[in-house]
# Entry
Amino acid sequence: MTKVYIFAESAAAAAELATWARRSGAASSILAVGDAGDLAGAGADEVIVLKGGSERPEDYAIAIAAIVGEDAGGLLLASSTVAGREVAANVAGRLGCAMVSDASSLELRGTFLRAERTVLGGAVVDVCEAPLPCVATVAPGIVEPEPAPQESAVEERVVEVDGRIVRRSLSPFPVGDVDLEKASVVVCVGMGIDGPEDVAMAQKLADGLGGAVGCTRDVAEGRKLLPKDRYIGITGAIVKPELYLSMGVSGQLQHVYGMRDSKVVVAVDSNKDAPIFRAADYGVVGDLHEVVPQIIAAVGAH
Ligand SMILES: Cc1cc2nc3c(=O)[nH]c(=O)nc-3n(C[C@H](O)[C@H](O)[C@H](O)COP(=O)(O)OP(=O)(O)OC[C@H]3O[C@@H](n4cnc5c(N)ncnc54)[C@H](O)[C@@H]3O)c2cc1C
# Structure
C-alpha cells in the first residue's frame, strides 16, 4: 500500500490531503514541526512531530527526507506555499526522486502518481505522471475535507535540522480589512474605470449587495487605486463568490484564472469583443458610467 506523507503547515490543509489519502486507499502520516496543534484531528493515521530546535519549517527537510526515504513507494505532499515548495524541492533533491509542483488534482495509479496542473495563466491543463516515490506540492482547496474517522496517534521525534539560514525577524505583513477570498459578492473594477470616483461607485454597489470591491492587477499595481491585496488573478487573490460583477475588465487569462470558479458572472464592458464576455453568464455592452448607476438603482443601493 502506498504511504502518503503530508508536510503540514495548517490543520485545514492537512485535513484536505489526509482526506485525499483515505479516498485513495493509502495510509497517511502527517509530518509536523514543533507541536501537533490540532493535527491529531486532521484525519491521518498518525502525526509525527519533528523537534529540532528550529522555528523554520524549511529546516526540517533533512528529517522529512529521511522519513519519506524509508518507504520505497512513498509520496510526500506539501501545500503550494513558500515553505511547502522549499521542503518539497529539498526532499526531492535529497531522495533523487521526481517532483510535481502546484498540482490541482492527484490520483494514485499503481506505482505512479498522476497529477493535473493548470499552466500558462489557466489556458492549459498539463496532465503528468511521476513514478513513486515522488513529491508533489498541491494547490489549496482541491479536496473537500471529510470529518476525521478517528484521532491520530501522535509521536514526537528529535531530529537533525539545517541551521544554515538564520531567521532574523518574523513580523506580520499588514493586511487590509477586506477578505476578498471569502466575499460572497465581488464587484471588480478594471482599467476601464476613470479614477477614484468609479472605485467609489463600485463600493456603493458592493455595499448594496453585501459584497467587497476587487480589481485587476493594473488597477492596484499600476494606478494604485486599490491596495495590492484586492487584485484578483493568477498572481493575486483567488475568489469564488456567488456573484462576480466586473466593470471595465477586459478578461485577460491572468485575471480570469482568479475568478473562474465564481458562481454567476456579470460583465459590463464597452467592447463587445472583450474576452470577459466568454467567461460571463450575463454581459452588458456599454459604458460603465451609464450601466452601473442603473444597476445600483435597480438593487436599491444608496
Ligand atoms: C505574468 C503576468 C501575471 C499577471 N497576473 C495578473 C493577475 O493576477 N491579475 C490581473 O488582473 N492581471 C494580471 N496580469 C495583467 C493582465 O495580463 C492584464 O493586463 C490585466 O488583467 C488587464 O486588466 P484590465 O482588464 O483592468 O485592463 P484592460 O485589459 O486594459 O481592459 C480594460 C477594459 O475596460 C473596457 N473599458 C474601457 N472604458 C470603458 C467604459 N467607459 N465602460 C466600460 N468598459 C470600458 C475596455 O473595453 C477593456 O475591455 C498579469 C500579467 C502578467 C504578464
User: Anything to note?
Assistant: The longest strand covers residues 112-119. The pocket of flavin-adenine dinucleotide is lined by residues 190-192, 216-219, 231-236, 248-250, 252, 254-255, 258, 268-271, 274, 287-289 (CB under 6 Å). The mean pLDDT is 93.
